[in-house]
Design a protein that fits this description.
3-stranded antiparallel beta sheet, 2 domains, alpha+beta, single chain, about 170 residues, about 35% strand, about 40% helix
Length: about 170
Amino acid sequence: MEYMIPIVLVILVLVVLAANIRVVQQSRAYVVERLGAFQAVWGVGLHFKIPLIERIVKNVSLKEQVVDFAPQPVITKDNVTMQIDTVVYFQITDPKLYAYGVEYPMSAIENLTATTLRNIIGDLELDQALTSRDHINTKMRAILDEATDPWGIKVNRVELKSIIPPREIQDAM
């Protein structure tokens, strides 16, 4: 009985130590807070988390990610409403800014993409919008990349997956 208490204490200490060892994998980063304040970004390797003092706030993937947004209704300069489907390729470059920069990053990127698309298409006529995909993609990527920098996100590419004009115009084509 006298040996049970030290053995239980040693086992308990070992369990607590093992539970607080973290291995960060390649292409991932952990954002760590100490007592509620930002402490560090853990990169690849072995790390020890101080129990009850530190906590991992966000586990961030540093790989390029692809988001396919639902078709957005947009109006051209000549007052034609059409649906445009976009795909955004982005990568998280700063895990700290990503964790603390904006509350819901995916929603923010979706809304930013929709408003940027409406602004760009609103300056073009229907025939220009249908024929200048590369111009629209390039302009959108530049605007989105600049806007998402404070969030720790780099927009690598923006692609217009499909441009769907109104049914009457499709029949005329």
